Amino acid sequence: IDETGAFYSTRSILQILKQTKNTIAKGIVRDFPRYETRGFMLDIARKPFTMDYLKETTKLMSWYKMNDFQVHLNDNEFWFHDEYENWQDGYAAFRLESETFPEITAKDLFYTKKEFGEFIDNSELYGVNIIPEIDVPAHSLAFTKAFPELRQGDGEKADHLDVRNPETFKFVDALFNEYIGGENPVFRDQDFHIGTDEYKGDNEGFRMFTNNYLDFVRDKGRTPRLWGSLSQINGQPSVSGEGATMNLWNLWWADPVAMMNKGFDIVNTDDSNLYIVPRASYYEDYLDTKSLYENWEPNTFSGNYSYKIPAGHPQLKGGMFALWNDLIGAKANGISELDTFDRIMPAVQVLSEKMWSTDNEKSFNEFKEVADEVGTAPNTNPRYEVESVGETLIDYDFNNGSENEMVDNSGNNYNATGSNVEVIDGEDGKAISFKGESSFVDTPVENKGPNYTATFKVKKDGNGDFSEQILSESKNGSLKACQKDTGKVGFSREFYDFSFNYQLPEDQWVELTFVGEMTKTSLYVNGQLIDTISEVSEHEKVGTFVLPLDKIGSETNSFKGAIDDVQVKNIAEKPIDPTLIPQSEMTATATSEHTAAGNEGYASYAIDGNENTIWHTDWAGVTFPQNITLNLGGEHTINKFTYLPRQSGDNGKIEQYELQVSTDGETFTKVAEGTWNIDKSLKTINFDPVKATHVRLVANDAVGNFVSAAELNVHKVTEEIPEVGGKVAITAPTEVKVNEKVNVELGINEIKNISPYASDFTITYDPEVFDYNEVTSKIEGVLVTGKKVEEGKIRVLASSLGGDGLPQGTNFINLGLTAKAISEESVITVDIAQVGDENGNVHEIEKGSTKIAVKENSIPDPGVKPNKVADLKGSEITSNSIKLTWTAPTNTEVSEYIIYKDSKEIARVNGTEYLVEDLKANTLYGFKIVAVGVNDEISRPFAKNIRTSK
Fold first, then answer.
1. A GO molecular-function term, please (predicted)?
2. Candidates 56, 198, 593, 711; catalytic one
3. Angle CA(867)–CA(871)–CA(874) in degrees, nearest 5?
4. pLDDT at 859 over 50
């Protein structure tokens, strides 16, 4: 019995059980592959991957019975000679420990020889052959940087080993021997790939070099592998392919029939169909799996599948797709391990099917349904999913439990424990104080992949320290309260450090919300979108971030401050833009569209909410102008249009445009025109408001005689609800004596758009300082009644007895009080202020307050530092303003008060109230007030967060 065959049979049985929910039909199954080599190549040189990731990839391949995993161990930045004055500044890496040449081993991430050998052994248990590749003589900058004397030349030849230099052969001999020589070689008995990819210059020297190392590997009792290049690098000497396997990657570099005639076995790795270069414009970002499923076979080559060799040819061993990470160094695009998996998974599913099964009886959609059910390999979690009983995954409010056990309120019982943290009073309930360095809350959840919404309420210590401070971490990455080098909120993962355009205030509670999606992560502060890290934003990098939850805080560089109300949800919960016309209400038609091929084609792809699908005109090419028309599903007043270009490749990106609108779908009027840069950024067209039922984007010129669009959106003008405005007028004497009667007068001012016929005020005062007497009307025609709700609180109703409504600018209520106790400053506040209009509608207006001193004590000696103010609050709150009131210090005279909003000074006043205007509705603001003594002594601040009304 063949061990690998027996293992594959368990894969088949498990796949059946996964689809049938643990039942299986009785009978005999004959399950065997059509091709012996079913492979995938991963460029781990230009993007570092953890060993855990390689093991997860092996399990995925094994699950789908893919058996060759080619690991590309060394490479370098492709454009190093153009990007840098010094060629040695280009990024290059060799991912293995080398005792012979320690200079060549990558500094950011490498594998020890022991762990790489164990990786090969472990993969064999899963039926997967690891094919190690050391790419020489080109793509060798990792070697020539260490040994410049071995390079072929400068410029683009600096990453070429000199194939005429005897020292080059000594170096490569020793390097190869370190891994394939000896009794227990690192590369075990695997096939060994010697590279030979994209060499330029000295054909004869290259062919001698290739012959030498094919024989070198053969002499070790192994099968050598190499990249096809001998049709382009032609000449003498002849290169024998007997006992060697060639990755046939490009018909120009190597012709399949010619290579088989030389004796090579070949593996179809055709770049036109099987190459992925994430987020590049010259190869696929994702393989066109639909086209591959319906058209590709291992014996077909070229983009239109027109070049074919006999399907049963004994030298055609199978196929392999490849993922290259070209965009690093100066062109680094931020691709993560999860982004890579997202590209590998569908490719593995389709190619395994094409190289194992004998027919395609299922349609592509039927195949996809089965593939989705089969899913990921058992005991793997490549998308970092977390089990949860509901939408909320974690919910720590820290109000229950202690430092030793913090209760999860989500229902998942993901309770946590603390280390060097302290439960303290928070803004509302309890919070956790983090001490910096090693200070953390240990949770049972390690990571959460996109999609997620994570909220942390935080208050940074007021120490002026903005060095690196971590909010949460795992071995996958860290969420930063203060990112190193910038001091801003950010995150780090896989050797990338990202910073949002936001720095935490000090000594102030703010609510941070992180919304994680594939390709982007957004930061909201107190509910307001601050920044998004994505390729489309100014950051220009893929912003995928796996949320680390293993520890809130850190074992090494913890946040210094307090954290409260940590909540993580299983969805990307984003505020809805009220101006956006839902794409679901729209339909799209175009002058040309390609019959859907994978993720591109139909006009509807431009309004499907998916940035990875695109509308694309017919691949045969078009003449300009071309257009796409959106039926808005009804009439709207619109004033903004956005165009998101395709995010991979440049074909079809619009350069010259017109925007037209119509109210009948027949006659269109131009509202804007212009030109756009050819890049990935979101394009926005603003124009004067206009009624429309249809919007047409006209392309007068675009890249490559095609037109494409990833996403189109239209924004409407929302109806403005007339503002009533208005505020309470309240006046009183500034100073009275004990036992003196006090008249507090009230009225209304600045109300617009309605006629107020009634008012309803709730007034609070200090019952230790004043006694309530009565309320009366000050003018004829206004009825006033009053009722004591409780000690210190009076409700006062007023109504007009005539047809003109309540007067504005004239006080019509008199509240009678009697002073009974000394007070430096006692505040009388209207806590609730409403008016009613002629239609019976009730409207909130701005509240008010006044202060009265009752027989003040003598003023203490100046020069004493004032105590901090007390009782800071929003006494009157509207959707766009907050009236701040506070109680003055009593220990000394105060010359003025300094008012801060969100850590910025906004005013200096002498009294104990201030109206903050021009605010946004339903937004949380942080206020702080300090008292200034007569000799400029500054009190400690009093801080408070206050939210405007909706």
1. carbohydrate binding
2. 198
3. 135
4. no
